Amino acid sequence: MMSSTTAVTAAIDRVPVEICKGINGLEKVVLREARGSSAEVYLFGGHVTSWKNDHGEELLFISNKAIFKPPKPIRGGIPICFPQFSNHGSLEQHGFARNRFWSIDTNPPPFPTNSPTKTFVDLILKSTEEDMKIWPHSFEFRLRVTLGPSGDLMLTSRIRNNNTDGKPFTFTFAYHTYFSVSDISEVRVEGLETLDYLDNLQNKQRFTEQGDAITFESEVDKIYLSTPTKIAILDHEKKRTFVIRKDGLPDAVVWNPWDKKAKAMADFGDDEYKHMLCVEAAAVEKPITLKPGEEWRGRQELSAVPSSYCSGQLDPQRVLLGS
């Protein structure tokens, strides 16, 4: 016979979407799939802070020193860079969406989707008078975070220009995803070979990638241009591959701060660079312009698949070219 406590726990486990308090009392939404995968989204920043597989393993990196105290952005997870990526403009680094409080959108407009899953949350961010002082445009940013039946995590952004003065606006954008990896020196990224990139460590100069796959032995901060819709991150030690699928986001930013930058960041552990890698679906090189009433959509879908490279059973090209 099931005890009442167990029965309650079992019932909670089946709740696909739950709103509760997170660190420092900040509100968060927890998404749970029947097979055991989960994700967490903080309303502060519209920020995904956790994505676990059905074994309960955390797939995203959050720094142990992350500061969950607004207005300081959260270090790790998936920060949203809008309306500016990095310092590509006059606003604060990565814009302001990641340090604003978003609302749950209980009545979103129709959302064409192929997935029958009910495990999702819709968030919305609208321009405030304070925001208009630094970025004088009326916008509406709707974010849907979905956890698929097989544990895939999908983020869909819809940004609309609501200006009534007839003015278009222009923005750059990124899903600044921090992946959790076993050891950065054992990781390789496939799908960006032979592409051009802008090197942020060399005044955004343009170069062409020479390697047959990207590996890491020092600080990296590159914006790859005209990238494929699918990129793979191979983690040899964990025998795991992350696959990023993206739409509306032609660029891909690859970042690891390495030791010196890590030590200089107050909200980042000195050695944590070894266990994270940012590969970010982005629109940076060619900013997006919206006329009043126009809407832009950008989507990324993340999946984590087991792989056994040691035995050569998995051809990375098959991951990239396959379904």
From TrEMBL:
<dbReference type="InterPro" id="IPR011013">
    <property type="entry name" value="Gal_mutarotase_sf_dom"/>
</dbReference>
<dbReference type="InterPro" id="IPR008183">
    <property type="entry name" value="Aldose_1/G6P_1-epimerase"/>
</dbReference>
<feature type="binding site">
    <location>
        <position position="98"/>
    </location>
    <ligand>
        <name>substrate</name>
    </ligand>
</feature>
<dbReference type="InterPro" id="IPR025532">
    <property type="entry name" value="G6P_1-epimerase"/>
</dbReference>
<dbReference type="GO" id="GO:0005975">
    <property type="term" value="P:carbohydrate metabolic process"/>
</dbReference>
<dbReference type="GO" id="GO:0030246">
    <property type="term" value="F:carbohydrate binding"/>
</dbReference>
<dbReference type="GO" id="GO:0047938">
    <property type="term" value="F:glucose-6-phosphate 1-epimerase activity"/>
</dbReference>
<comment type="similarity">
    <text>Belongs to the glucose-6-phosphate 1-epimerase family.</text>
</comment>
<dbReference type="Pfam" id="PF01263">
    <property type="entry name" value="Aldose_epim"/>
</dbReference>
<feature type="binding site">
    <location>
        <position position="75"/>
    </location>
    <ligand>
        <name>substrate</name>
    </ligand>
</feature>
<protein>
    <recommendedName>
        <fullName>glucose-6-phosphate 1-epimerase</fullName>
        <ecNumber>5.1.3.15</ecNumber>
    </recommendedName>
</protein>
<dbReference type="InterPro" id="IPR014718">
    <property type="entry name" value="GH-type_carb-bd"/>
</dbReference>
<keyword id="KW-0413">Isomerase</keyword>
<dbReference type="GO" id="GO:0005737">
    <property type="term" value="C:cytoplasm"/>
</dbReference>
<feature type="binding site">
    <location>
        <position position="93"/>
    </location>
    <ligand>
        <name>substrate</name>
    </ligand>
</feature>
<feature type="active site">
    <location>
        <position position="280"/>
    </location>
</feature>
<feature type="active site">
    <location>
        <position position="176"/>
    </location>
</feature>
